[in-house]
Amino acid sequence: MFGRLDWAGGLSRFLNRWMLVLLVASYGLASILPAPGIWIKDSRVLDHAGSWLGFHPTLPKLMLSFLLLNAGLHVRIRRVVELARRPGTMIAGLAANLAVPLVFILVLLATAGQWHNPEEFSMLLIGLALVAAMPIAGSSTGWTRAADGDMTLSLGLVMLSTLLSPVVTPLVLAAIGTIAPAHHGDDLVRLAEHGTGRFLMAWVMVPSVLGMVIRVLMGGVRVGRWERFLKPLATVTLLVLCYANSAACLSETIRSPDWDFLMLVVAIVTALCVATFSAGYGLGRVLGLDHAGRSAMMFGLGMNNNGTGLVLAAATLGGKPMVLLPVIAYNLAQHLVAGCANALHHADPVSSPASPH
To answer: Under CATH, what is the fold of the domain 22-344?
Structure first.
């Protein structure tokens, strides 16, 4: 029994230490060997039962649900009570998490006519809208912990944004689609109306709440006994999910690279990432938070759950795989910027976030 636990713990430490490298490797594998990833993305399981129940489970959806269930298992009810004592700070953080990307996209739309290819600009816009509309990533808690940040505030931002996502995400997508020119915004409006709320309810919110309920019923001690197994399993699941959902996009990019579009995506995504991290730190100062609170706010605003964005886009925009490119780029950029921000905070070096998605 202890040998197995030691093996699981060693695997978990290895995955944590090399997580960013493994994430890049999963994207590299998707570029050169896309066929298994495309099969995983398109395969349906329990299809007969799913059709009867009114939904169609796929392997990526089930993997996403497992990740959110696992996250819910780690929510301590005592901390939920603590969160209720500081609603203003969390509301300000969630509002800024939505407002900063929206303002950035509005500025970007003002330059839409400057880019020579409207279709490329449309794909960039949709990808950025998906990033902006996603809830805060659970990995932000890992970086907050590494920077000795306020874990209660960090957890609250993740939890509330996840629970509100079935309502907030479609509204954000529809809002961006409405203000964008018709040839850029139509896909976003359709995406918002294409069962996005039901998707997030079924595959994001329900698993998260279920994980919390299981923790209450089983108790933190029993759940903790499984943590060393669940943590590496969740990390491997995330890597497979990233590989599967990026296979079509990255293989197409490798076959016929469009260098100016790639440079545009990297530049815009990096600028957005730096803007959200900077806004989080600045909001913490405006609210008078201490170092720990500013760290939690900075990582919360800077990191979004792009695993959910990849699954949603792959499920609803399968005919436009290049839409995923900005989401993939942001997924990498947010961890690189988080590492730089952590170093600037004079924190101890961090090997990897706990669960980047």
So the answer is: Na+/H+ antiporter like fold (1.20.1530)
